[in-house]
Amino acid sequence: VVKDDMKVGGRSADHGDERVLQLVAEVREAYMTMRTKPAEWRVQQLKGLLRMVIESESEIVEALYADLGKPAHESYMSEISLVKSSCKLAIKELKKWMAPQRVSGSMITFPSSASIVAEPLGVTLVISAWNFPFLLSVDPLIGAISAGCAVVLKPSEVVYATPALLAKLIPLYMDNSVIRVVEGGVAETTLLLEQKWDKIFYTGNPKVGRIVMAAASKHLTPVTLELGGKCPVYFDRSANLKVGLRRIAQGKWGNNNGQACISPDYILVDESIASELVDNLKEIIETFYGKNPISSTNLSRIVNTKHYLRLISFLEDPQICSKIVHGGERDEKKLYIAPTLVCDALMDSFLMSEEIFGPILPIIKVQGEQEAIDIINARPKPLAAYVFTTNKAVEERMVKNVSSGGMVVNDTVMHFVNPGLPFGGVGESGMGSYHGKFSFDAFSHKKAVLYRTSLGDFPARYPPFTTKKQNF
Ligand code: NAD
């Protein structure tokens, strides 16, 4: 597979732009036949998708390993099994989600009944990111199909094995007239964004999120933007140190080696337990990944040299390098950076201003939860915030006063796997949400339908308006 080469549906395109435009036109034409509307079609596609995942598990694991050095168990836990359960849930709940929702009538429209009817938004574009290249492509696809939409999926060009696999598999298991994959880079995404869509679902960084939103505004296309940012942890003096730190370590290095949108980005720790926290975290890192983590089979690699160098520039910042208290080892050829702890980084350093998206974890001392709240709220709203405490008052203050896409108390990242919770950001970390029924909603329009009969017509609503009618 040639990276950045223009490909459509797994085949190289002879005339890139024309082929993409033709593909989009074909998908819209097929959508207009209303083939995606019946529940049977949706269930059939979802079952096809589920079968694709089940029958291709080993190929998916291999592709994720090729793209990110992702350990097999991590691929199962954080990509394959999540897609399978999303798919099963959609198959099971679809009829319920699709059912019109009756609402009470009003005196003014008596006699009548009223319903909210979910209808597919239409022809949709899903643009996904490289860090969970399977999950972030297929999970929105499940929402789009459940809602009865047509989909053009544009996976990230930063990785190549998983997008190529998706482009190969999807046509084999699903209705190719309305579900298509376009591989390609920024040029192809730009061309796709210039087309008219009925919904754009984008996962990636906030800078490109702005480009997507600007493009969408030309056609008044609704968007879901699943973006990122710096996800803070507040570690209170009352928290269970060992359990809390194990969960932080798993959320950080056990998820793509920190290259996850909801990875803990930095820890704000009550100063009274800061040195104990650092000592314990070092021990946990050693227990999880050994004395020499480069030989651990449980750590993903950095996705490419560009991102590796970006992360190294954090560590080589003169403000930061003297503050590394653990890790810092690296190997450019192997795209490896050790789990690294940095203590007392200055708040205006590059490390504390940019989303880290890698295995470096800064630890900052604070004087209790109020200072933590002030620090978090002074920055762009994060996608996730984590609080570790056994003190109910602290927990309540954090939940009430910190604005973030999601929040977890005494754990990290686990809100992502609860389909009853909407997953999405707020402010700089995004808009809209998905997962479970929220995915169906993200691709549906809620049509307000009022059913009237021809009985009981009131003359008072029609001209000519007399005083008698006005006083009615
Ligand atoms: P990326 O580089 O793979 O880009 C994502 C998509 O944007 C790609 O499909 C790419 O083709 C397109 N793109 C890139 N530049 C573009 C341009 N100039 N014009 C038009 N399209 C363009 O991914 P990334 O942005 O590096 O992903 C990492 C970011 O995504 C982080 O900020 C992370 O926090 C965030 N993220 C968020 C979620 C979430 O669910 N909220 C999940 C994963 C990643």
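^ nicotinamide-adenine-dinucleotide complex. The two ends are 75 Å apart (CA to CA). The CA atoms of residues 114 and 450 lie 4 Å apart.
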